[in-house]
Amino acid sequence: MNLNGLVIGYGSIGARHARILEGIGASVSVVSRRGESDKRAVFRTLAEAQASGTFDYVVLAEETARHAVTLTDLATHGHEGFVLVEKPLFAQPAALPVHRFCGAGVGYNLRFHPAVQALRKALAGHRAEMADFYVGQWLGDWRPGRDVATTYSASRIAGGGALRDLSHELDLVTWLFGPWQSVAALGGRLGNVTTDADDGWGIVLACERCPVVTVHLNSLDRQGRREMTIQSQGGTLHADLVGGTTVINGRVERFEIERDETYRNMHRALIGGSQDICTLEEGERTVELITTIEVSARERRFITRSAA
User: At what angle do helices 280-299 and 168-177 cross, to 10 degrees?
Assistant: First the structure.
């Protein structure tokens, strides 16, 4: 794969994207305010990178609060290659820029986990009655060796917090069950693991193809869990993404999955034009859902989509 790639933001996730893109044959430069690049070509600013030439594939891996400005900058400067924006798309709702990107997506890589793919296949043609999603992992385990207080995930103004960092589940809910129709939530900063960002949520949604969905997400769980259970006309479906298993009507299937596999498959899907990639428009709707959840919790009320 002969692509000239650029990764904007060189924290842990940016470094991971750079390594994975090189692993599938791309040459990679980085934009890093600190000037760190692990011997890759490095630019201090996006303007420096743009002045050096064009790029085929750009990854936005900065802190979430900067995504909207950087995406607009790419569009304004006429980028015509691929763009992948780390999740969530934006920290707050913002208009998508007019662009000429040949392909664009949001980094919801769990769509490409084989256990999730198995559940989606099993659900095909069946209506779900109820579903429950749970994700929890103590924030201190996310980036070993780093002071939690120095990470963007601990900072509300940087766009961190459990609701945004763990928004994979919100993306999966709407990907599996269609647009959300109503939502109620409780949550916020329940512990003291972050500086000032939220760390735990309990959410109830009604979706187009499932009338009752519960989502529990937090950065407090010392055990580390990521599971989903679905009751549908096709039976009972369960996936454990940490354990790498699905149980569909009692039949257990185990998946051996390498740590970078879902990311690698996501990049290849974007380049190949797969419909499984989360589009910018879908990412925009997830940002809308995130902010609606916050309003519901703040105002202690159930919100329907028409009133959101």
Answer: 110
For residue 60, what are its two tokens? 């936005």
Rounded CA separation 106/117 (Å): 18
The DSSP secondary structure of 165-184, one letter per residue, reads HTTHHHHHHHHHH-SEEEEE
Q: Both 174 and 97 in a single domain?
A: no
Residue 215 Ramachandran class (φ > 0 left, ψ -120 to 50 alpha, else beta): beta
Across the strands, what pairs with 226?
135
User: Encoding tokens for residue 99?
Assistant: 């662009």
Cα 160 from Cα 168, distance rounded (Å) = 14
* Confidence (pTM): 0.93
Task: Specify which residues 6 forms β-bridges with.
Answer: 29, 58
Write down which residue in 55, 80, 106 finishes a domain. Answer: 106
Return the SS3 of 289.
helix
How far does CA 133 lie from the centroid of its chain?
A: 15
| pLDDT tens by residue, 8-37 | 999 889 999 999 999 999 999 999 987 676
Strands (E) in 86-150, as ranges, are: 103-106, 128-136
Q: Which domain holds residue 129?
A: 110-307
